[in-house]
Amino acid sequence: MDEPKIGVTRRGEVPTEGYGQASLHWLVSKKTNGARELTVGLTTIPAGGNNPLHRHPNCEEALYVLSGEIDHYIEGTPRMRMTAGDTILVPRNAVHQAFNVGKDPAELLVSFSSPERETVLVEVK
After folding, report:
1. Residues 52-93: tens digit of each pLDDT
2. Strand order in the sheet with 16-19
3. C-alpha angle 82/18/90, rounded to 5°?
4. Residue 20: which residues within 8 A CB-CB, separation 6 or more?
5. 23-36 residues labelled b (16+ CB within 10 A) or e (exposed)
6. Which of 19, 33, 83, 115 yields a CA-CA distance of 20 to 30 A from 27?
7. Could you give the angle at the alpha carbon of 53 between the alpha carbons of 95 and 35, nearest 5°?
8. Does the domain made of 17-121 have the CATH classification 2.60.120.10?
9. Cβ 98 vs Cβ 54: under 8 Å
């Protein structure tokens, strides 16, 4: 098995993907630098935007708001307002979604308990 790459990871040099209206920069993952235990990403959601309704069947997610203001929905709970400095834990396989309710882009640090996070989009009925 390959050893993890040790070194500085820079936002502009990592794999990035569009995720609905959001963008994800993969700072730590199996693909980015050979992580074996977790995935860490930086998510940006534009003002008025959201990420898709989804779930992660293989891992928990911790979400920390770096800047901006979001409403976060986790299935079975009311939306929770979050601002810079707030953290939430999303249990494995829980359907969830973030909505930027502020006037500026929201930046979120997300961490997953797997080096290869799985995401399943949930169809809105």
Report:
1. 999 999 999 999 999 999 999 999 999 999 999 999 999 999
2. 16-19, 22-28, 39-45, 106-112, 61-67, 87-90
3. 35
4. 49, 50, 51, 52
5. bbbbbbbbebbebe
6. 83
7. 75
8. yes
9. no
Tell me: the pLDDT tens digits for 6-38? 888 888 888 889 988 999 999 999 999 999 999
Residue 5 has pLDDT above 90, yes or no: no
E strands, the chain, are 16-19, 22-28, 39-45, 54-55, 61-67, 69-74, 80-83, 87-90, 96-100, 106-112, 120-121
Q: Are 52 and 97 in contact (CB under 8 A)?
A: yes
Dist CA 39 CA 117 (whole Å): 7
* Residues in Cβ contact with 84 at an 8 Å cutoff, skipping those fewer than 6 apart: 65, 66, 67, 68
107, amino acid identity: E
